[in-house]
Amino acid sequence: MAFYTTLNQVIVLFLLMGVGYVLTKSGMISSKTTDQLTTLLCYIVSPAIILYVFLRKFEQDKFNNLLIAAAAAIFIHIFNIIVCTLIFNKKTVKDDNRRIVSQFASIYANAGFMGFPLLQALVQNNGLFYGSAYNGVFQLFNWTHGILLYSGKVEKKSVAKALLNPNLIAVIVGTVMFRFSVSLPGPLYSTVKYISDLNTPLSMIVIGAAITQVPLKELFNDAFVWITVLMRNLVLPLSILFILHSVGLHGELLLCVMIPASCPTAGVTVLLAKLTGRDAAMPAKAMTLSTIMCLITLPFILSVMNWLKF
C-alpha cells in the first residue's frame, strides 16, 4: 500500500476531527452532546456496522480468517499487557497513577472509533469483517483486565458489562448469521446500512471534540506522556508487525489486524480514569497527543508493511 494513499485517508479523518474540534470550540456542541454522541456510537452505530458486514453469504475461507483475526487480537492484547507491565513497573514509574495510565494507554488502541473508519476506507467490507473480531476481543480485555488495572479488582458487573457489550453481542450474532447465510428483510437491511454509514463522520467528530479537553500549550511539555505515546504508536505496533509477519500472517488479513493494533490510545483511557476516581488529566493528554501523532505514525507503519511486501 502506497504511503500517500494511506496518508490521504488519515488526512481525511483528521479533517473530520477538525470539524468536531471547531464545533466544540465555537460552542455549537457541548460536552453533553459529545457524551450523547459517544453513547450513540457505542451502543447503536458500532453494533450496526458489525452486524452489517456479517450479512453475507457463508465462505469457509473467510470464516477461518475471522478465527485467525480473533486469535491474533488475543495475542496482541496479551503481548501488550506483558510488555507494558515489564516496562512501566514500580521501579521505573514510582507514581501509581502515572504507571497505571501509561500501561493502559499503551495497551489499548482506539480500535473502534479510529480503527473502523480506517478499515472502511482502506479495505472496505472485508476490513470491517475481520476488524470486528479485533473489536470483540478488545471489549473483553478492556472491561476485565482494564478494570482490574485501574481499580485493582474485577467486579461481577464489569464482567457482565464485557459479556453483554452490544459490540460483542453483535459479533456473536453476526457470526451465527454469517455461518448460516441468514439475511435480513430489505427495509431492515437498509436501516442497518444507513445507521452504519454514520460511523466514520460521527466517530471523528467525537474524537475531535475530545481533543479540546486538553490545552494545546500543555500537550507537548510532558516527557512521560511522550514515552507512553511512543509505546502506543510505534514500539508495540512495529513489534507486533514483525512477529505476526514472521509467523506467516500476510496480505489483507495482516493489514486488517495491524490497522486497529496501530491506532492511537483509546478514548476509554479517560473514561475509566473518571469511573475509578483517578486524575483524568494525564489520560486526556496521552489520548490527544497519540491521536495527533498518528497522522505520522499510521502511514509510517503501513509503509513498513509495504516494505515487507506483506
Provide structural commentary.
- With 310 residues, the protein is mostly helical.
- The chain has one domain (3-307): Na+/H+ antiporter like fold.
- The protein contains 15 helices and no strands.
- The chain has helices spanning 3-25, 31-53, 60-87, 96-107, 111-122, 124-151, 156-163, 166-179, 186-196, 199-211, 216-219, 223-246, 251-261, 268-275, 281-307.
- The longest helix is centred in the N-terminal third of the chain and has 28 residues, at 60-87.
- The protein is globular.
- The mean pLDDT is 89.
Features:
310 residues; mainly alpha; Na+/H+ antiporter like fold; 15 helices; 79% helix; globular
Give the strand tally.
0
The total number of structural domains is: 1
**Per CATH, which architecture?**
Up-down Bundle
Q: How much is the average pLDDT?
A: 89
Structural class: mainly alpha
Per DSSP, the total helix count is 15
Distance between the termini: 9 Å
Overall, the morphology is: globular
How would you spell out the order of helices and strands? Answer: HHHHHHHHHHHHHHH
Helix proportion range: over 70%
Report the CATH C-level class.
Answer: Mainly Alpha
CATH topology, what is it called?
A: Na+/H+ antiporter like fold
Task: Give the DSSP E fraction (strand runs of 2 or more residues).
Answer: under 5%
Oligomeric state = single chain
